[in-house]
Amino acid sequence: MSFSHTVFVTAASGHIGQELVPLLLKTTTHKVVLPTSRAAKLNAQVASLGLAPDIASRAVIVEGDIKDPLWVQEQCQTHGVDTAFLCLTGSDELFTTCTILEAFKAARIKHLVYLSAWFEQPNTGADISGTLGMWGLVAHGLVKVAIELVLPTLPFTHTVLGPTLFTTNDLRAKPALVEPSDARGGAAFVPRAQPRLIEPLGNIGSSRVFPYDIACAAVRCIDDAGKRYNKRKIVVGSLKSYNKAELERVWTAAFRAVLGESSNVVVTMAECDAVNLDRLEEHIRAARGPAWAKEIRAMYEAIAEYGFGPNETQYAEQVELLGREPMDYEAWVHETARSWLG
Fold this sequence. Notes:
Blueprint: E1 6-9, H1 17-27, E2 31-36, H2 39-47, H3 53-56, E3 59-63, H4 69-78, E4 83-86, H5 93-107, E5 111-115, H6 125-135, H7 139-150, E6 157-163, E7 165-166, H8 174-177, E8 178-180, E9 189-191, E10 196-197, E11 208-209, H9 211-224, E12 232-236, H10 244-259, E13 268-269, H11 274-288, H12 290-306, H13 312-322, H14 329-341
Parallel strand pairs: 1-2, 1-4, 2-3, 4-5, 5-6, 6-12, 7-11, 10-13
Antiparallel strand pairs: 8-9
Helix pairs in contact: 1-9, 4-5, 5-7, 6-7, 10-14, 11-12
């Protein structure tokens, strides 16, 4: 069987990967190489898609350590990889990303789609200074600044995707927004007495992005193979930035649309102040450790001070790439509220 491209896809089980892998298999003729440390889980994920055998066979799942550059190089060479989608995070992101890029270089891939984050792409000393000023000590932002600066020096074409803040972050607030209903045969959940969004986004706010839109953008960039979008960064996310007041409005309207306009439910959002940031840091510290807790706190402090989202030119470039407007965040909020309360 001949393939348009053979694509090495990292983080196939992540938020974006779970959208990207089905798109690549269903809408392209690419062979997809999926590295994982848990092959059984990824096999089950692909099997759950219910694909025809000839389509499913284009997914090649390889078990190993993505942090081992010799293993990455071997997989790329064994399977004839010519394109890669690189999505990484973690406390050793810089080290791992650099060694993987070395492996891609040794394996002579031809094109890379790199998942970065929203910020102005630094091209001059002034740009770099401004970007660093925004990110401060947010390490998982700074690493992406560094990698973007390195990519043009490598012997393959590349396209950078810069997503904004995931819409699905809102789902983490579900326990603070609703509680199980005792009514038999009714809705599974009812609003809490004081429903609350927990993400402290401040008064400037952030653009919101769907993992599905990021996946669609990635497929377009993979198909492009560095012809039109080489050395370009495409920001993915809504043009509108949603701050505390906007998010309270959207979620309150969504709840009342289900419960009836006579409902007096009001959804509030955590202030981006020392008290709530302390609370957030304490929660993340228990769940993910002290370093990530401090890191996430610094990120929300930066968003509150600078905002987080595309300008009109960047938004137009995204629409051009996708061939459509990005998905509607407010419509999604209404659908989510209906699924909980309807």
